[in-house]
Amino acid sequence: DQQVKQNSPSLSVQEGRISILNCDYTNSMFDYFLWYKKYPAEGPTFLISISSIKDKNEDGRFTVFLNKSAKHLSLHIVPSQPGDSAVYFCAAMNNAGNMLTFGGGTRLMVKP
Amino acid sequence: NAGVTQTPKFRVLKTGQSMTLLCAQDMNHEYMYWYRQDPGMGLRLIHYSVGEGTTAKGEVPDGYNVSRLKKQNFLLGLESAAPSQTSVYFCASTIQVPVHEQFFGPGTRLTVL
Fold first, then answer.
1. Contact assignment for A46 to B45 by CB distance below 8 Å
2. Are A32 and B43 an interchain contact pair (Cβ–Cβ within 8 Å)?
3. Alpha-helical regions (H) of A38-92
4. Partner-chain residue, chosen from A32, A42, A104, that has the shortest CB–CB distance to B100
5. Of A68, B35, B36, B44, which is the most buried if we count CB atoms within 10 A?
6. Using the 8-state DSSP alphabet, how is residue A84 labeled?
7. For residue range A85-104, what is the model confidence (pLDDT) as tens digits?
């Protein structure tokens, strides 16, 4: 049973518009969440994170929102650029803080 | 500073053959991880290590063994490869817990025929 789910396998947006990637989790003990970005033939790279004591974290064009009551987080990219086209994984940290559980990923395609 | 490197990049095995994947990191990280990535399944943890000489099972450990004889290296072994182990394997490391970021290698694409 997947504890972290990304229900949209793919998303296509126009350059300059907002991209919204969603992630849901079931384990209420998760208290730290991360987003990773992955290009083809490369390993994932860290993008942005959020602690459960916050509901928003912003870094340039990237903002992560956390709704603890709904067990839902989202990544907003504004404005979207063609270079943002990649697979995005959300991940949650376990209780012991030594492991991450990843979602299945969402492939984002930003069209010029 | 090479970060996390993985050897080999590609490999094709026949069912029943064995092989070892090597992960090396030069960042003096204590914690190292092996994941497999399959379409729609994301990254699933196979085994991990919290320090030299220690290993622990992750989510999908069956069919794999690991060793961490040196701090900078984490080896993943397949004793008798099966087609179900066809996947892309990623190694990652982190300096401390709680894990606020993991650094990943470029991956090894393994095909088992």
1. no
2. no
3. none
4. A32
5. B35
6. G
7. 999 999 999 878 888 999 99
